[in-house]
Amino acid sequence: MAASKCTRLSEALTGQLLESVDSVLFDCDGVIWRGDQAIPGAPEVINTLKKHGKRVFFVTNNSTKTRKMYADKLGKLGFNATEEEVFGTAYCSAIYLKNVCKVEGKVYLIGSNAMRQELEKMGVQPLGVGPDPISGVQIDWANVPLDQEVQAVLVGFDEHFSYMKLNRALQYLCNPHCQFVGTNTDTRLPLEGGKAVPGTGCLLRAVETAAQRQAQVVGKPSNFMFDCMASQFGLNPDRCLMIGDRLDTDIMLGSNCGLKTLLTLTGVSTVADAEANQKSDCPHRQRMVTPGVSVSMKFSRRCNDHHT
Ligand SMILES: [Mg+2]
Known about the structure:
Blueprint: E1 7-8, H1 11-19, E2 23-26, E3 33-34, E4 37-38, H2 42-51, E5 55-60, H3 67-76, E6 86-88, H4 89-100, E7 106-110, H5 113-121, E8 125-127, H6 138-141, E9 150-155, H7 163-173, E10 179-182, E11 188-190, E12 196-198, H8 200-211, E13 216-217, H9 224-233, E14 240-244, H10 247-257, E15 260-264, H11 271-279, E16 297-299
Helix pairs in contact: 4-5, 7-8
């Protein structure tokens, strides 16, 4: 197994790195913004990249917003961005259900209104958004009426997640022909001050456990989101740079897809994480680049044999 070292971004390397790519993919939370605040310098970096002819994409596992909602947020925070540059899991899951799962009918959705909107745009009819409280007794739960046109269960972030939703998903997934898709497996959503709340991965794991089946996952580090971008914009992976704050999603996506990768130290993963990753026995291919944000950055590439 080849070992390699982390490369900290320097000014000279930045120039070389930018010369070697045409497209730059940014994770959002922890990279260009934290909550509702832009990370200082990030809008300038992205706007400058675009001015110099680079294509920029925004790639997020967060399923709570449509592309339009993300484009609006980006604009408000000072980023020059369009809907077409946004690849979130609400949108990409809709493409996945349509193009990969070939769903023509309905989908039982554990998710948000934003997901419902993206599915409807794609001609998929979602059921289940909103609160679903329990009623009756256990034998009733096992016999909840099912819509025969449901062809898939999709699990994303759902603030109304409940025992009854879990039960309904299980009843649908007892049919082996019902497909099972999850937006992403992130188990925690980090918040300011070192706090966190449970992420979609917890909900997805609950449904997988109940159904005794594994979901097909759309979000990073799966290749699918990059495949969507690559097919829509004709991207050459070799000329793309993925910038993110998490080794297990962002950097892994880059690694899985053959992109150059840059780990920022503005979010979840730390230098210690990157170093521990370096010492592990998976082969790395380090790349660096940095758009010159006023934070220290580090490149890391992670092998894909840990999470496939
Ligand atoms: Mg992030």
